[in-house]
Specification:
Elements (H helix, E strand, L loop, with lengths): L1 H16 L3 E3 L2 E6 L5 E12 L3 E11 L4 E12 L2 E11 L4 E11 L3 E11 L4 E12 L3 E11 L4 E5 L3 E6 L2 E6 L2 E5 L4 E13 L3 E11 L4 E5 L3 E4 L2 E4 L2 E6 L5 E16 L2 E14 L6 E16 L9 E12 L2 E8 L3 E3 L5 E3 L1
Parallel strand pairs: 25-27
Antiparallel strand pairs: 1-3, 2-3, 3-4, 4-5, 5-6, 6-7, 7-8, 8-9, 9-10, 10-11, 10-12, 11-14, 12-13, 13-15, 14-15, 15-16, 16-17, 16-18, 17-20, 18-19, 19-21, 20-21, 21-22, 22-23, 23-24, 24-25, 24-26
């Protein structure tokens, strides 16, 4: 009889207020002087407006203003998204939901968790604050203190100590910046302001003002005084592009504008300056195969084959260095070649 009474009560409430259908183990109602009808619900609460369905331990429903507050084990189903939290405030008129306490929002592919989430249903957007974590196949794991998710643009904007961690096979890439933005289409990521990247186990680190990562192309673009540090040395320039293999190792590196570097590669030490530089690596990504320098190129190479390190400097419009097992094996210069070079290996002009 109790279940039947609860069922009849919910039908009666629906017929009076019109917008919410409710069921619960216990319910009470009161009318305010301003005409507001308030329902207090306890135990196995289910509230729906035919677009959004919420279950919780307890709820307060304001029928006239078309809003409700839910507490304890909150679960929301709306559109193709689901959410959970400890507390939920929902306005049917504005379509705004505020989830607090272990909040989680998911579309079945990506999952967003935070201390608090504002979900704007009619705008297909959500903001998250406090211990924000977003995980998804196209992202890896993103952490920060504030995030804006735009479902229409399929993008996520993260600021306040944002960190991206992406693991592919045995390689781990970590990106930090002042702001991170991600786009599901093309698996793109953009880092703005103090963009810092670490790649393990290769040990490579990059620093630039702006970074763009294209996941589907395995390509990374660094803009604004980019610098690369690795176990082999330091490289800098105005703009850089890094092409990665499917396993995450470097295939090639291109630098445009004010290219310079100091590299210690096994038995050779290479110092260079040029307007443009292009590095090609072996498939393993662990050994340098060749280095092309173009535009007012200046090169100094020293190593076991150097006769006099202090005069091992040449300049040319284009210089090509080919490496074998980490050692500069062949050097070619083209266009206005100048300098004195003491080298027991092979040099061709």
């Amino acid at each position: 009889m109790n279940k039947l009474l609860v069922f009849l009560f919910s039908i009666t409430v629906f017929s009076v207020a019109g917008v919410f259908t409710v069921t619960s183990d216990h319910a009470s109602s009161k009318e305010m002087e301003n005409g507001e009808s308030i329902l207090e619900l306890q135990g196995n609460v289910v509230v729906t407006d035919d677009q959004v369905t919420v279950t919780s331990d307890s709820a307060t429903v304001y029928q006239s203003s078309e809003r409700a507050e839910f507490t304890g084990n909150v679960h929301v189903d709306a559109d193709t998204l689901t959410a959970t939290s400890y507390f939920l405030s929902y306005s049917r008129i504005t379509g705004v939901m505020v989830l607090s306490g272990n909040s989680l929002l998911t579309d079945g592919v990506s999952t967003l968790t935070a201390d608090q989430v504002h979900w704007f249903r009619y705008r297909n957007k959500a903001t998250a604050r406090g211990s924000v974590v977003l995980q998804g196949e196209w992202l890896g794991m993103v952490q920060g203190e504030y995030a804006l998710y735009d479902r229409d643009r399929q993008s996520l904007f993260v600021t306040i100590d944002p960190v991206l961690t992406r693991i592919e096979e045995n390689d781990t890439t970590v990106i930090t910046a002042d702001r991170l933005e991600f786009f599901e289409e093309g698996e793109r990521a953009e880092a703005q302001g103090n963009a810092f990247v670490t790649m393990r186990p290769s040990g490579m680190e990059t620093l630039s003002e702006y970074l763009r990562y294209f996941g589907e192309e395995n390509r990374m673009e660094l803009i604004g005084s980019p610098v690369i540090n690795s176990e082999e040395g330091t490289i800098s320039g105005d703009w850089m592009e890094i092409l990665l293999s499917s396993s995450g190792v470097i295939n090639s590196l291109r630098i445009e504008g004010a290219a310079s570097g100091d590299l210690d590669n096994l038995e050779s030490t290479v110092n260079f300056e040029s307007q443009r530089a292009e590095f090609a690596f072996l498939r393993s990504g662990e050994e340098l195969d060749s280095l092309l320098l173009q535009g007012s190129a200046v090169l100094n190479v020293s190593g076991e084959d150097s006769v006099r390190a202090e005069v091992n400097t040449i300049s040319a419009e284009e210089i090509v260095i080919r490496f074998l097992h980490g050692e500069a094996e062949e050097i070619m210069g083209r266009g206005s070649v100048r300098g004195t070079y003491s080298w027991s290996g092979e040099f061709r002009e």
